[in-house]
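Q: For a teaching handout, I want to show students what a protein-ligand complex looks like in token form. Below are the inputs, and the small molecule is coenzyme A. Please produce the holo structure.
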Amino acid sequence: MSILKNKLYEKIQGWRPRTTKLLKEHGSVKIGDVTIAQAIGGIRGVKCLTTDISYLDPFEGIRFRGYTIPETLEKLPKVPGFEMPLVEGFYYLLLTGDIPTDEDVKAVAEEFNKRKIVPQYVFDVLKAMPEDAHPMTMFSAAILTLQKESEFVKAYNAGMGKMDYWDPTYEDALNLLAKLPQIAAFIYRYKYKGGDIIDPDPNLDMGGNFAHMMGIDKPYDDVARMYFILHSDHESGNVSAHTGHLVASALSDIYYSISAMLNGLAGPLHGLANQEVLRWIQGVRDKMGGEIPTEEQMKKFVWDTLNSGQVIPGYGHAVLRKTDPRYQAQREFCLKHLPDDNLFKYVDILYKVVPDILVEQGKAKNPWPNVDAQSGVIQWYYGLKEYDFYTVLFGIGRALGITANIIWDRALGYPIERPKSLTTTMLEDIAAKSE
Ligand SMILES: CC(C)(COP(=O)(O)OP(=O)(O)OC[C@H]1O[C@@H](n2cnc3c(N)ncnc32)[C@H](O)[C@@H]1OP(=O)(O)O)[C@@H](O)C(=O)NCCC(=O)NCCS
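A: Here is the structure, written as tokens, with coenzyme A included.
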């Protein structure tokens, strides 16, 4: 058994009695009530999911396994001379809850390395897709194509016991994660660079190899590491994470689950917002003839967008009630590496004017920027100007968190999901009785 799998096995053994005890001895204890507004309004804030991979505090932001973003970036092992941690070590943290040693990280990197060959049929399927297929559609389809490789399906069909479900799920997760950077880079180079594909370099880590296959110079390898880590997990109620968890709860394998979660991530209210931010900013830039707008001019553009019934992309959040620390981390990167960049200046002016305007408008519960407000600017700066591709980067990162969640869902025996729905008449009856 590999170092990571062995460690994970020990953690699972230690954790299982906690879940069993909660269910057996405290299963009927209430953790909240559900209102009519929540039943109609997207189940907002209903506490009905469990995950230990990350926790999102409305005012503090995300913690991965108990560590804030600055702590995560500081504590995890790095390639000497680089600022951002190795994604391999971050995955070790997500799965086990422990900060890995350099040796542990090396072992995870070797695990990924031996699983990273992408079968030719995946590339053939991608090449057969329509020229104007969205990169997210291609990414999701490529992953679905790989489904026939599932170790979980083989073991399930062979009669594996429930306590062992996590094991082939872990195998599927590592097999898939190891291939995602190459599949994504292939989509990019095939679609936007005339099919000039760059082969992977077996000596590089996940972030470094991705930058290499994308054909983008340093420090894009650090940008890739930062992106994958920051976008990995945001507890389990957001659309992509919840979709992954829900699909997997039917014992559908990792390939089905990750393909499905990407389809949710592809929506403009979720992962596509980073693309929308760039599209919106460029609309402003065109109107300004390339000049940087004053705050007053920017305010007018923001109000025009709101008055035409659209949302301001990159602002607001269903849970957060402050500036997203993922936005902050990227902003700090921008201040260090691209302080004079034109687009960064636009984003900076937006940060100064949008929150007050959203407060004045009085609709959004959170007027502050989220992760998507900043991320496109960094990609653009390093030459990745095809913004349709941005959500694919988000998807690679999100797959880290969701696969970790699914492995643990299986380890702790979480059942198939099945919330209960009511009719409108039933809600009206409940409302009438409460008066
Ligand atoms: C993220 C988002 C989907 C959360 O939605 P939510 O939980 O329903 O947010 P709220 O409860 O604050 O929404 C209340 C109202 O404010 C509006 N609102 C929220 N964020 C807004 C924004 N950035 N610009 C304009 N209006 C916004 C909502 O559309 C809603 O309007 P409605 O009552 O007319 O339907 C929402 O903030 C949004 O659409 N943001 C822009 C897209 C984006 O950045 N997505 C990436 C999220 S990581």
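A: Two things your students might notice: The first helix runs from residue 3 to 26. The mean pLDDT is 96.
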